[in-house]
Task: inverse folding
């Protein structure tokens, strides 16, 4: 089955700096890669996703890049703000072929004001 | 519109008792998923329902776990003879298939087995 590794497990940055979180996956048939943000005691919130037919996607201060050959994808947050502090999870799935998500272990991002 | 809802929000039960957790997906969503999140851990897939097809139960950790989805909408996750290691947050998610992969999560049920 699919295995998703996520690094780092914790990340501390100064407000205004950029943050990068990286994930690798094992199943070459995976073609959908979402990122979720989870604040303490809250539900995971989908913040951005990418499909395997594109290499990069941006939405304001966040972007995701995908390298299918190397089987890794990354989340980039620019101009970080204290409200970006949360746990971020990457995930992978085969899309329509079931679409159950396999999650990485999570990254606790702390943005210091 | 209304998001995914789950009940109860918290459940404390004694070891050996059965529990039922409920999920109401977003209206019109045909796919429904259950995940489990242990304290400080990532999310673990449990079971998946798609329309009227047989569910994918490949993530269920033991035969004490079962789930139903009635009328293609509401789902109930049942854990029989609960054990302390079942303590976790149980999250439900739904998505609208036919080319849309995004999954939206409910608030979860925090289960504590004493």
Result:
């Amino acid at each position: 089955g699919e295995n998703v590794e996520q690094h780092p497990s914790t990340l501390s940055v100064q407000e205004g700096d950029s943050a990068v979180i990286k994930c690798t996956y094992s199943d070459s048939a995976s073609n959908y890669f979402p990122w979720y943000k989870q604040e303490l005691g809250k539900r995971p919130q989908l913040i951005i996703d990418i499909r395997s037919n594109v290499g990069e996607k941006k939405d304001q201060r966040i972007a995701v890049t995908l390298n299918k050959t190397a089987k890794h994808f990354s989340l980039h947050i620019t101009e970080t703000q204290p409200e970006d502090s949360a746990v971020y999870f990457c995930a992978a799935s085969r899309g329509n072929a079931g679409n159950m998500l396999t999650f990485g272990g999570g990254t606790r991002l702390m943005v210091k004001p | 519109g209304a998001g995914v809802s789950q009940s109860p929000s918290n459940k404390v039960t004694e070891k050996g008792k059965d529990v039922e957790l409920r999920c109401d997906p977003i209206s019109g969503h045909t796919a429904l998923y259950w995940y489990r999140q242990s304290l400080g851990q990532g999310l673990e897939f449990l079971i998946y329902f798609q329309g009227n097809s047989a569910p994918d139960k490949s993530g269920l950790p033991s035969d004490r776990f079962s789930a139903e989805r009635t009328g293609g909408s509401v789902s109930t996750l049942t854990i029989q003879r609960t054990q302390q290691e079942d303590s976790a947050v149980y999250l439900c998610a739904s998505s609208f298939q036919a080319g849309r992969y995004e999954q939206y999560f409910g608030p979860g049920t925090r289960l504590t087995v004493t």
